[in-house]
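Hi L., both proteins are below.
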Amino acid sequence: MIPDAITGLQCYQCNWIVPAEPFRYTCSKCGKNLDFIYDYEMILRSWSKADLAVDPEKSIWRYLPLLPVKSAPENRSLQVGGTPLVTFPDLAEEHGITDFLIKDDTRNPSGSLKDRASEVAIQHARQQGQEVMVAASTGNAGSSLAALTAFHGLESIIFVPASAPPAKLTQIQQYGAKLVAVDANYDTAFDLAFQWATENDHYSRNTGINPILAEGKKTAALEIAEQCDWQVPDHIFVPVGDGCIISGLYKGFFDLMALGWIDHLPRLHAVQAEGSAAIVNSLKRGGDIEAVQAQTIADSISVDLPRDGEKARRAILESGGLGLLVSDEDIIRAQKELSASTGIFAEPAAAAAYAGFQQASTRQLFQQDESVLVLITGTGLKDIPSARSSLGNLEVIKADMETIDNYLRAKTD
């Protein structure tokens, strides 16, 4: 059930070529992660930018020729993808650049970019004859899979650390998934979920280990390029935990370069929390990725050992990007400033990308003729307590006009 344009999968570690079928999660030689290989000339014979320009499909499925499934799902009315690219001329002027853009993936059905990966994984699972999907998550991947399996009529089992934000756990339960909250961290939940999926012959939606997921996430890159009329931004700031989002973006831009639809890669900057910095630490050291004991308010990027870390490093280095570290205080401050200046409410992990952009601007890393994009990956409604932490207690006043008048005058003084 693999498209003809896919010629196999290649291991990023040892370069071993794995046949496209039967599907396998990892390299059969060294056990590392895989990339799908496309025959770009075959794709170009039947698909063009002109075809895209007249395609009425608004979801990620407009890019079907560049996805590793034979067909799109019949019901696409719960639209995944097609999220807006929002421009902010005043912020561009403030930071001395030509354009400042936000790719707002809070608009996806479950409120996060993870819907892109889940949607493609569900279709792939169906074409593999699978009806039960298993995932480990700190919340977003789980709520994404739970939402979309509910829509498509599949069963999902979600392993999470019990410390995940209550709103995300509530989402998962509301969608009817089987929630397995373990008294351990994400890395342990990851191992347990993959073991359960393997032993019970279920489909694993674990980030990093399943190459389908980066293919779903790369649709954000395809949309960015198309929305920019194929003139990609000079810089893109990405929140990074496991590394799958930034490696997916790299793959999307790589595919477009191979098709000849864009002429350069944007610089992909990885932003990690100081308390979960395994990938950026490795860049600074120049050595292998070593596990950390992750501790950060940004739960979605809180990872001890990134499962797609090496592919993330490749994305950063080959695009000329940087690894940036931000503190939890930076993240919470950026979350509030982002909301107040753009109207976009981001969860802490997503706000980390904006904090990274602010740091880069302060360090004067941009040229005046450059364009910058910040990828916002999840809505702040998924973690209200973190957002409230910087706001203080809500003041309640008497319900009369004199008190209200005095209160508002004091606020403007």
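That was the first. Here is the second:
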Amino acid sequence: MADFTGADLKTPKAAAIAGIAFSLLLTVILWLLRTSLPADPLEPGAWLATDTRSITVALNLVPFAGVAFLWFNGVLRDRLGQLEDHFFASVFFGSAVLFLAMLFAAAALIGAVMLVASISEPNELTNSATFRFARAASYIIVNVYAIKMAAVFMISTSTVVIRTGIAPRWIAFLGFFLAAILLIGSYFIGWGIVVFPCWVFLISIYILIDNLGGNRLVGAVP
């Protein structure tokens, strides 16, 4: 019988596609929600009486984006190998999990509002305190806490990039700059969160090209 004790699990070279998939999915999700939901969290809920199919599609794409983002984190940790710093690895993985948890929570709140609205009398839900709470809570979760966790993920990952050299330093410096936009200017820039999937897309493209080119990973075990 074959001995699997010393077998190594190898991450597929094309695994960085997960980061690209996450970037595209999150961009589509944000576009669908931003074009279908009013920016004002205190709006009266008139959108519930309109066609909400775009919102439904966006909410159903959220779990797929979450799985792709977790896989992308696995790609980063695999690329680090023995060079992984426990402190920064914990910070970037923890911020990634918190970002997804908040994204899922906000999506669940919006989905619950739509479900209740579908079985309620017209204006019954929108005139209730429950609707106003759910709408405001989902807005704050995404536009305050989730965005800040995305910025922390970018900062910690960029720091790891500089310390280990798993990607060019200019990608790390760009990550610091874009993270500052999220931390400071996200409240003033409505589409500011889009810089996050764009940065993930950039680093994923680099890792994919580097892996498919057959280059040895910096942190890999020889």
